[in-house]
Amino acid sequence: MDTLPIIDITALYRDDPVARQDVADAIDQACRQWGFFYIKGHPISPERIAQVQAMAKAFFALEPDEKLKIDITQTRHHRGYGAIATEQLDPALPSDLKETFDMGLHLPADHPDVLAGKPLRGPNRHPDLPGWEALMQQHYLDMQSLAQTLLRAMTVHLGIATDFFDLRFQDPVSVLRMIHYPPRQTASCAEQQGAGAHTDYGCVTLLYQDSAGGLQVRNVQGQWIDAPPIDGTFVVNLGDMMARWSNDRYLSTPHRVVSPLGVDRYSMPFFAEPHPDTVIECLPGCHSDEHLAKYPSTTCAQFLLSRFADTYAYRREPEAVN
């Protein structure tokens, strides 16, 4: 248990039921044993990754005042720029040594959900960089499609309809994030990590990481192992919503980022999360008289907001923001 599995998902895009079943079996095994795996054979091109990464580097290189024009702490729906130490993923450690950009499904100001003041619903807030918005909007949609392809493969062993997740991911609250981790020597103290140990909040995460390294995953024996970058792959991991849906049959695994020495690290996670009103409760085939449902029913929005309050100080403040 010291190496994450690598799964070729090419067959999920072909009309070969036997090969698709083999991929579904491999994903199921990885979800049960690890909650983490790599995928290759996906349709996101190296050219696209290079374009998005170049845009991210250009954004994070802007002056602080320019980035703070879209300060995430000044929005109700959690979009925009998060300065260094805005997040504290591990409450036992100092706030994280990273800066971020978050975007979601764009809903205009006159959308009924926005007018109703529903949480996590609203317009994106983009920097003023040529080509940024169009590129990021397309990448968001393509990553959402890839996530739902993986989720369809998971339905086979979860005993639910193939379109179960598709129906619940209409107008989702999925998040595309860009992250910049400054070199470790810039930390405020020795204990400050790039990202403290945590589990993800949502359903499934797809992560692109650059060549700097630093991602570590805790295996079932409690040991921290490296999850090094592998060209052409995404790291996939499950979040707490999937653990709740599957009654912990599928693992939401702690992980962290130890910022590398001497270099900047850039990563691009996509957090696939369903429509905010989606009910998150134990799936019918994941509990029995011997294995009772472990978690109470909640909704996507309720659960995310509770986790945000734990992670972001600004989400705990009662004052209204725009």
Verbal overview:
- There is one protein chain.
- This protein starts with 5 loop residues before the first strand and ends in a 6-residue tail after the last helix.
- The strands form three sheets. The chain has an eight-stranded mixed β-sheet. A four-stranded antiparallel β-sheet has the order 6-11-8-9, with no helix packed on it. Strands 13-14 form a two-stranded antiparallel ribbon.
- 29% of the residues lie in helices and 19% in strands.
- Strand 8 (215-218) and strand 9 form a beta hairpin.
- It contains nine helices and 14 strands.
- It has helices spanning 17-33, 46-60, 64-67, 112-115, 132-158, 164-168, 240-245, 300-311, 313-316, and strands spanning 6-8, 36-40, 80-82, 99-103, 175-181, 195-198, 204-209, 215-218, 224-226, 234-238, 255-257, 265-272, 279-280, 298-299.
- The protein is of the alpha+beta class.
- Helix 1 crosses helix 5 (132-158) and helix 2 packs across helix 5.
Topology:
Layout: E1 6-8, H1 17-33, E2 36-40, H2 46-60, H3 64-67, E3 80-82, E4 99-103, H4 112-115, H5 132-158, H6 164-168, E5 175-181, E6 195-198, E7 204-209, E8 215-218, E9 224-226, E10 234-238, H7 240-245, E11 255-257, E12 265-272, E13 279-280, E14 298-299, H8 300-311, H9 313-316
